[in-house]
Specification:
One of its GO terms (cellular component) is cytosol. The strands form 4 sheets. Strands 3-4-6-9-10-11-14-15 form an 8-stranded parallel barrel, surrounded by 5 helices. Strands 1-2 form a two-stranded antiparallel sheet. It has a two-stranded parallel ribbon with strand order 7-8. The longest helix has 20 residues. By secondary structure, it is an alpha/beta fold. The chain has a single domain, classed as Aldolase class I (TIM Barrel, Alpha-Beta Barrel), CATH 3.20.20.
Length: 369
């Protein structure tokens, strides 16, 4: 740990073991959609720089990375389903490792949150139930044709299709290992496919995948267990967002849902559980507290943390590490700035999901001043 660190960040600078690996510090880079892959969903040279510039974070979690060819939740979203995508990500992981960093691939499918024009002709937007996202359209920046559009009513998955998706996650995890990743984070958050099974607002099934908490969590644990079988429990992690209403999500009892997931995970001994503590659109907070009461493993939390609050959270044992999103996006050298007590760059929100390099690799570091 640096001897010149400010006392109010020292807790974040201690090493942390996740699985068989050791993070150099407790700063975690959140999985952030940036829409900068090429049209074949292959990571680019600019993405190599973007991720490797942030290798001083204790762990990098990649942007949500598509498990299925022919689908793209976001325009210019990276995939992990074929040789080209694997080779592209290998350049990223090699660059991060060359700087001493660790990097996990977040594997996902958008389900009903997939922009319809992003789906290859002949394929269909799917979900646990035939319920469309209502209340907002998909942003134009998420569409490959650049047009704002309604989310369609998805096709409800059959049981045989559910089994196929479980295997897609396992294959994606295997591919991530081939690409040199240190592990995978299963994306069970923010209104995408797995979260759609978890939440009562989007899952109205009457079979063994719907109804009770146990049934709504069945797909999640089939995916987790398949990923563990593919890459090992020490390289597998999970992200959930029990309180987040993004993509028109809600649940009748998010506390019970959180605690059930945590109890079931305790026997699975994953590398870590990543719990988003609140909601993008309201002051609701507390999912991390529910998890801490129940989960016995390494717990990450995030959503709107200031650095000092994050350090206090780790020092008190409320979580083992804190996940930073916008701060990591706008500050490639976030750890160095925290140690120095330096001012942080201001993020340029308008460039978060654009497709050129403005607002991507042009945030200055302290060393560049």
């Amino acid at each position: 740990m640096p001897t010149n660190a400010k006392p109010d960040v020292e807790a974040l600078l201690k090493p942390l073991k996740i699985g068989r690996l050791t993070m150099a510090n407790r700063f975690v880079m959140a999985p952030l959609t940036r829409c900068r892959a090429n049209t074949d969903h292959v990571p680019t040279a600019d993405m190599v720089k973007y991720y490797s510039d942030r290798a001083s974070m204790g762990l990098i979690l990649t942007e949500a990375t598509q498990i299925q060819k022919g689908y793209s939740t976001f325009g210019f979203e990276a995939g992990i389903y074929g040789p080209e995508q694997i080779a592209g990500w290998r350049k990223v992981t090699d660059a991060v490792h060359a700087k001493g960093g660790l990097i996990y691939c977040q594997i996902h499918n958008g389900g009903r949150a997939t922009v319809p024009c992003n789906v290859t002709e002949g394929l269909k937007v799917i979900a646990p139930s035939a319920i469309a996202i209502e209340g907002h359209d998909s942003p134009a920046l998420f569409a490959v044709d650049g047009k704002k559009q309604h989310y369609p009513v998805p096709a409800a998955l059959t049981k045989s299709e559910i089994a196929e998706y479980v295997q897609l996650y396992a294959t994606a995890a295997h591919n991530a290992m081939a690409a040199g990743f240190d592990g995978v984070e299963v994306h069970g958050a923010n209104g995408y496919l797995i979260d759609q099974f978890l939440k009562t607002s989007s899952n109205k099934r009457t079979d063994e995948y719907g109804g009770s908490i146990e049934n709504r969590c069945r797909f999640l644990f089939e995916v987790v267990d398949a990923v563990v079988a593919a890459v090992g429990h020490e390289r597998t992690a999970l992200r959930i967002s029990p309180l987040n209403s993004f993509n028109a999500q809600s649940d009748e009892d998010p506390e019970a849902l959180t605690k059930y997931i945590c109890r079931e995970l305790n026997s699975r001994k994953l590398a870590f559980l990543d719990v988003m503590r609140g909601d993008f659109f309201s002051p609701a907070r507390g999912a991390d507290k529910w998890a801490r009461e129940t989960y016995e493993g390494v717990l990450f939390t995030g959503m709107g943390f200031e650095i000092e609050e994050a350090a206090q959270t780790v020092a008190s044992g409320e979580a083992e590490a804190v996940v930073f999103g916008v701060k990591a996006l706008a500050n490639p050298d976030l750890v160095a700035r925290a140690i120095a007590g330096a001012e942080l760059n201001t993020p340029v929100v308008a460039t978060f999901y654009t497709h050129d390099m403005v607002g991507y690799n042009d945030y200055p570091t302290l060393a560049a001043r």
